[in-house]
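This follows on from our talk about sequence and fold. Can you supply me with one protein entry, sequence and fold together? Could you add the entry underneath, on a fresh line?
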Amino acid sequence: MDKDELSLLSKDTQHQIWRDAARGIEYIHSMDIIHRDIKPQNILLGEGDRGAVICDFGIAAKIYNEKPALFSGGTPCYIPPEQLDNYPRGKEADIWAFGVTMLFVFRCIKLPRGSWLIAAVQKNRTAIQRMRHWLQHILRASETLPKALALVRGMLTEKPADRTIAAALVKNLHLQPQQVRLLPA
């Protein structure tokens, strides 16, 4: 990070993190596991060809019968909008958190830091206001992304059902390792 708390990663490293972490998320989601705390601090970058890996599965959970449970853990700035409505966080929440992570990796936002309690979001006015303010910041950053980062915008849609899924993300990233673009429908 630089003095302004922006990422200093090279473009090659940015794309390596995006591809490798997307593959990791696709894999855990294929096993019906949700990480529940995707953030820059939980992505390790190896030297050389070792790539990026997701770590810290301390609060990860298995999804049974396609129904995630209510959960108030994780890191505040990576929690998706549905948390405001006490909606259970599933695979879509991991995608949101990965989208916020990639905004940082691609130097679109400073390293996220939040000071509200996730468990208080349903009942504490200050926590609700802080989270809403942060979500507006993320959505504004998403709206101004260049066309080459349109996949990140798809990770940060407000409605969980409209978010890009990990398999589609990997498919799109695999086609153009140095230049990301969407496949035609």
